[in-house]
C-alpha cells in the first residue's frame, strides 16, 4: 500500500489554519462545505448516497491510503479540507497520487499553473499508455460450468478510438474480489455473500479478457459503447490512477463488480442518475440497464464465443456433413475419402472449417501439442483448397437487457390432497428454467432467496419453501463439445413424514449429469445426492442418493418441463417425486404458470396442482 501523504495531525492543523487565514483564490469554510456536497466530489469520494444499506453517507472505500484525513471516510468535507492543504503547493507529491482531485480543486478554487503535474513522472508515463478514445461496458454472459459466473460479469474497456475492430490494444478495467487461489467456486460465493473479500480495481490488456471469456470459458460477450466525451474520459482515467491498489468491501449481491463500475462511470458524468435508488441486489444485467436508462449507451455489439461459433456452423450442415466434420477433426486424412471428395467444393470448405474450429476449441487450453498443431495446419490447407463465399456471421440472440427484470413476486391458488390453498411468493433473483427465455442463456438457471408462503383452510399460514440458492446448468452435449451438466440446491421445504403429514426441513442436494439439445428440447439426467433434516423425524439426519431425469422445453412463446426424481435414503425408505410445469409469458415482465406434482414414499402419496401469476420487477 502507498504510505499516507500527510500525517493526520499535520493535515488537521494546516486545514484549520487555511480556514482562518485569508488566502487569495481559496474558498472560505462555508464554500468548502458546499463544494464537498457537489456531485463530482461525492463521486470522487465514492460516497454512498443511499444506494446500498451499509454506511449511507460514508465512503465505500475501505482503505486508509485513499484518505488524507482521519475523518475522510465519514466526512467528505474533512477530506476536501485535507486535500486542499495537501494539493495546493506546487510540486506537491499528493498531486501525483490524486490527479483527479487536483483537477477538481484547481478548477473550483481557481489555481492557475501551466504544468501542475510535470513532476509526476510515474503518472504521466502510465497516462501515455492508457487509451482515451472511448469507454465501453463489456458484458460476458453466463458461463454454464461455473456457479460464480452464472450471473454474468461486467468490465469496462478503454479504446484508443471508437472502432470495435481495433480492440487488441485496448485496456480492460475490472473490479473483482481478491480471492485466494485455493478458494473454490462455492467457497467464493459464501465469502462473497458475507463481505469476506476485499475488492480492487485492476487494469489489464483486453486481449487477455477476450481469451479468458470467449476462448477458454466459452462466454458470449456484449459490448456497449458509452457516449462519454473527451473531458469526461479524462476524469475517469485520472481517477482510475487514484484507485490503484485501493481496497473496497466486496459483497456478492450489491457492492460487487457491476456496482463499482457504475461508480467509476459516474466520476466522468456525476449528474447521471446511476445510483440514486436503493440497489438491494446489483446484477450485471442491471448495470447495463442503468447505463441504458441514463442515456449513456451509444451503441452495442455482440461477440459470440468460440463454442457458439462452432454450434452455429454445425447447425448449417446436414447430419451426414456434421458426422464427416467430426471424422475430419479426428483425422484430416478423411479428406482423401470419396465421402468428402464427392461433395461440392463449397460443402468441403464448410466441413473443413467446422472441423478446424472444433479442433481448436477442443484443445484451447494446455501446452502446445505438436500433433494438434500438425492437424490444424492440414485442415487449414483443406479449407484453402476449396472455394466458397464467406460464412454468414453468427446471429445475435436477444440482448441481456431485453430480458425480464430480476426480482419476482407471485400470487397463486391450488389444491393439495383435497385442501384448497392460496400462495404468495417472492424471489430476490434471478431466473429459473421456465421463466421467459429472451435475454437469458438457454439451460441456465440461478435463483437466490426464493420464498413461498401458503395459506390453507386447515393449517392457516405456513412456510412452504425457502430456497437459499438453486442453480441448474443444462449444458448440452454434442459431437463437438462434451460439457458436464450439474445442479446444487439448498434451503428449507415441507417434506413428507408419516401418515401423509408434512414438516419443515432443511436440505442440501446436488449432483452431476448430462443434457442434450433436440430443437428447443433439453432432455437431461442427473445423479443426485441429498442430505436433509426434518423437524420431529427420527433419525434427525437422512442421507439419500438416486437419479433425476427430465425434459425442458424453452421457446419464446411458452416454456414447459416434466421431471422425475427417485431417492433411496439411509433410514431404509425411498421417495419418488414427479412433476410438470408450464409457463406462458403474457408480457416481458409478467407470466402465468401452472404446476402439478406427485410425491410418493412408502405407501403414502401427496398430489398437488396450482396456477400462479408471476410479476418481475427491479
Protein architecture, described:
The chain has about 625 residues and is of the alpha+beta class. The chain has 4 domains: about 10-120, no CATH class; about 135-305, no CATH class; about 305-385; about 405-615, monomeric porin ompg (Porin). Helix content is about 30%, strand content about 35%. The protein contains 17 helices and 20 strands. It has helices at about 10-20, 30-35, 40-45, 75-85, 95, 100-110, 120-130, 185-195, 205-215, 230-240, 255-270, 285-295, 305-315, 320-330, 340, 345-360, 370-385; strands at about 135-140, 155-160, 170-175, 195-205, 220-225, 250, 295-305, 405-415, 420-430, 445-455, 460-475, 475, 485-495, 500-515, 520-535, 540-555, 560-570, 575-585, 590-600, 605-615. The strands form 2 sheets. The protein has a 12-stranded antiparallel beta barrel. Strand 16 and strand 17 form a beta hairpin. Helix 1 (about 10-20) packs across helix 4, helix 13 (about 305-315) packs antiparallel against helix 16 and helix 16 (about 345-360) packs antiparallel against helix 17.
